[in-house]
Design a protein that fits this description.
This protein is of the alpha+beta class and 235 residues long. It contains three helices and eleven strands. The protein has a single domain, classed as Pseudouridine synthase.
Amino acid sequence: MFMNVADKPIVDKDILFEDNHLIAVNKRSGDIVQVDNTGDEPLDEKVKTYIAKKYQKPNGAFLGVVHRLDRPVSGVILFAKTSKALDRINKMFQSRDMHKTYWAVVRNRPAQTEGTLINWLVKNSQKNVVKAYDHEVKGSQRAELSYRLIGQLEGYYLLEVNPVTGRPHQIRVQLSTMGCPIVGDNKYGYPRGSLKRSICLHARRLEFEHPIKKEQVRIFAPLPLDGFWERFEQF
């Protein structure tokens, strides 16, 4: 079981951006985005509750899920508050017009301080694990990201990662395949898991053109206050 994060409601300080069409939340590691077989309350329901209470909507609020973050991952996640915004944001993700930046902490220094990783990923749905290949295989999906080393602290290395594609577990498995598993991610090669059941992968920034207003939007997610991540705020 995860810690009691799943029981914590969304409050004002969790909101990174909101207007009539969109709402962005700083997701805590341990929250699930949508309902699964754990029975824990998902983040989308928490956000619906937050909106309904804030704007006094007795019949509930509309909320559209446009992308996801793995349960042990923290950071900015965007939802649509109208069907019009949902449709347009979905198309923007499909056309790769949403620019996502992640921070990842690893223990092994990458051989190159920056580069591009291209792999072909195959997901085992029964085990909920992804395997990476350096060539196309049957049932695989092409995955691409760029990374650069932006900081070093106390034997840990901070990578800034920009995924080009949005495959399940993509950053986790590609960094691990490079020889740099994410701290705490024992599913993908880190020698031990975190007692908090989190991994050091944080969705740091999301940039896009507003689907209705056509204005540029840039959303930053502060790092988790967990006694470890704060050390990297200087970068």
